[in-house]
Amino acid sequence: MKKILLPVILLSAAVLSIVTYTHNVMEDLNRSLIRLHIIAESDSLYDQRIKLAVRDEILQAVKDISARDTVLFTHTAEDAANSCLTRYGLPYSAHAEYGKFSFPRKSYKNITLPAGEYYGIRVVLGSGSGHNWWCVMYPPLCVSDDGNVYADEKTTAKLKNTLHSDTYKLITKKNEETEIRFRVLEFINSLK
Questions:
Q1: How far apart are CA 150 and CA 169, in angstroms?
Q2: The whole model's pTM is what?
Q3: Do residues 71 and 139 lie in contact, with contact meaning Cβ atoms separated by under 8 Å?
Q4: Contact call for residues 58 and 124 (beta carbons, < 8 A)
Q5: Which of 126, 168, 158 is nearest to 38 (CA)?
Q6: How confident is the model at residue 71 (pLDDT cuts 50, 70, 90)?
Q7: Is 131 helix (H, G, I), strand (E, B) or coil?
Q8: What whole-number distance in Å separates Cα of residue 132 and Cα of residue 129?
């Protein structure tokens, strides 16, 4: 009996440790980030371009919001999206909502976020039948002047000061150990 009990206890402790680590990382990211998800009206080339115009309008509108105010971000995103749609004379509107949504793994040049459930703002354009666009709205990781997506020094410093050091190291490192940790995080999150 003792031969069976010790491995079961050790395995249980290891599983509990991994689940706790996963929970802590995801909670840390959710406490610190607001993700953005924009879903286009359709997959037509025109509606996909509109989605990007809406993205640009939203990012411009929220760029000076310095606090993690989800209500302000949500209303500002919806107002900006609808303003853009009106300017283009489109017959549909946008709806924004704040909630917990499933996001894929996403890399932003020097930062990678694991797939999982994140708090974010989802902006649906019209029927929302088209392809989507994902990013981190706060702190801003969405676009840069050269078209590449990465965290500038100000955003990196904000993340470093906001996230626990283990979480920060996990999302900024690019090595084999990080890939294994991401796979474990994503696997545990998929079980939820």
A1: 16
A2: 0.82
A3: no
A4: no
A5: 126
A6: very high
A7: coil
A8: 9
